[in-house]
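Exercise 7. Predict the structure of RNA ligase 1 from Pomacea canaliculata.
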Amino acid sequence: MCNAVQQKIQCVFVTGVSNEPSNKRNNQSFKVTASDVLNPEIDFEDLSMATATEKVDGTCCLIQEFQGKPLLWARYDRKPNKAGDKKFQRYQAQLSLWKQSGEIGEQPQHKWDLGKDFKEVPANWITATGVDLVDGVAQPDSLGHTPGWVPVERKSRQYCWHLSAVDLDLGLGMVLCMKENNDKELVIRCVPLSQLCGKTCELIGTNVNGNPYVDLPTLSQKRVTIEVNATEFNIDTQATSQFSTLAAVNGVVVNQLRDIENILYDSR
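Solution. The predicted structure, encoded as tokens:
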């Protein structure tokens, strides 16, 4: 699914910080969890009309021009360095104890030193849309992260799974979406990157963050139509890429997303 979201979506429930080790991040001494209390900042009129969905957790990507051509950008948040993180963890622990004491006394405060507390970012890094700026300087969020993006270079090993979802020579992206007028079926198709500029997408796969997306009911129980037309997009069906593999079976309908994975695996 493609959209224009570049920030984390606010939790519907009130979140809190507890003074216990994180289950998600090693060496993080605090845990952020959601309560069963609705967030008062949520617009309840909109909430009553909302539809609960299952999150497909991969990694967020941006499609945007770079050096005059549409390109895939990987999410890269500027994060605190070791000294900055240690200082922030100390503040989080103090804040947690203050809340546990019934908020007696002065509330602990924390202020970032933007010149010393953060790691260097890669060349061509840009901040995500909506990041707060003070005197032109991007400000970290409540967790100390500054959301941003880096362009995915053609021969990058670090972003090899990102590159498997695009063909930079042809300017194409491989997109999974709902079938038109039928939310019970999916379509996997080629889309020119130029048509996706300014949008964000979720990169999913069995090798992305270790997420077994093929077992989610949202995806695994839907038929999938392959719409990858080699003639329309000038795809070489003899090449060794997932674009070529799927173009060779254009028009095939499979019973579940795992069958697509099997087609790609068998072609190796």
